[in-house]
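Blinded run. Sample ID left blank on purpose so nobody reads anything into the name before looking at the predicted structure. Input follows.
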Amino acid sequence: MIEPKPSPPIQPRPNPIQAIVVAILTFFLPGLGQLFARKIRRALLMLASYATIGGLIVWRFVEAAPRDTGFVPIFLKGIRLEPMLLFILILAIIFMILASIDAYFLIRGVERNAAGLFILIAVLFFFLGWQLSDINLVRFITGLDEGRYRLSQVMWPWSRAIERPEELIRGEAIIEIPCSENPPAQSEILPDEAYVISDPTCGVLSVQQGPEGSPLHLIGGNFIPNMEVDIMWEDPIGNEFRQRQGGEYISVMSDDEGGFEIDIIMPYRLLPTDVGEFQYWAVFGQQVASLGEAQASTELKLAISHMIETIFLGMMATCFGIVFSVPISFLAARNLMSASWITVIIYYLVRGVLNIVRSIEPLIWAVIATIIVGLGPFAGILALTVHSIAALGKLYSEAIESIDPGPIEAIQATGANWLQTVVYGVIPQIIPPFVSFTIYRWDINVRMSTIIGMVGGGGIGFLLYQWIKLLDYRAAGIAVWFIAITVAILDFVSAEIRKRFV
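Blinded prediction complete.
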């Protein structure tokens, strides 16, 4: 007789009251209910997310109200100054509620998909990042017009690349203040020189918050036709200044024959009391004309010279980097350094040093180098060399580790020593990747030299940084164009070299 198979014991369903209590506790400590349900990974992830999000929210509220004390004042001021914090806080509360619901069903033995909960966590981190990063779309949209104008200057800067010699064209008349019995005679009219005639040739100055000065009628001639003429003054102690009238600087457009007429009021000016009873001023018209043949501007010459300096800066740093990184790379290759425990220790030491040096950005090395050797391209070469040694050492060592072991085993079978194995079994296989990595590093060094130049490492980066600080975006655009052209040429040259070696 076949005995019936015993049925498995019936698992008692959890008490609903117990599940509710655990869910409530989970609201205050997310992950607790999941931990009770033996969902360890989900519990740890929720707890870590809750702790991180809660800590960031508290920190942002404190940052928004650094001088306030007490929970309520800090909370109210934080909401007033950073309204997004309220939205993030609401999302955090929703997350806590969903975590409690998830815990309730898990305690009751109902498995649910927690994808929505983790999507909410991702959304919370996104909005926290938005608030932390101070993203302001309104500021971005309102600044587009100014940005578009500045970008157009950078993208087409060639008006600053060419210049013409400037010539100052000036004609003046002497004015006596106040009028004496014998005022100055009017200016002579010369056929080949600019002139200004004043009628009258004497008068009184304007008084601040008082009566206006004497009116003058100015007639000018022999200026460049159809070009603006600035009306200016020179006082008895040699100071030149442009006169304002009606809140605007006075200027006049010359006619087709280079002449003009204009009525002005004598300006207001404070002078020392020891300049004499009668003062002789000069009123003059002035034009700054660009004449002669076009020639390269100072900015263009500086950009060319510093770009050449940048190319050689990157080249020298790459050369020094190769010299030091090639022997180091053999010490950092596991397949060559696993013969004994001594070589293994050397391997880990070399790899550790390379990792530390490579983790420090060239910009930091440039700051350190400028402290040691001062400002200039030598500091940039030192910074890029140090970083190149670490970067190329890693790339070279990985190329050595990926070589075919067959030739090495064949050479070792002949009784060759370590050096002979490297020379005849390793070097022929690593030349193509070494050439490729070297060219790539030179490209990186040229581009990186524009950055380290901003901290005094020489090259075109120094000029670029100075021009940007001076808001001279057209000059900065010349530098940007030269950088882009140089990188494109280097890319073409490197591609041709790779065809021959790789």
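Unblinding after everyone has recorded impressions. The chain has a mean pLDDT of 83.
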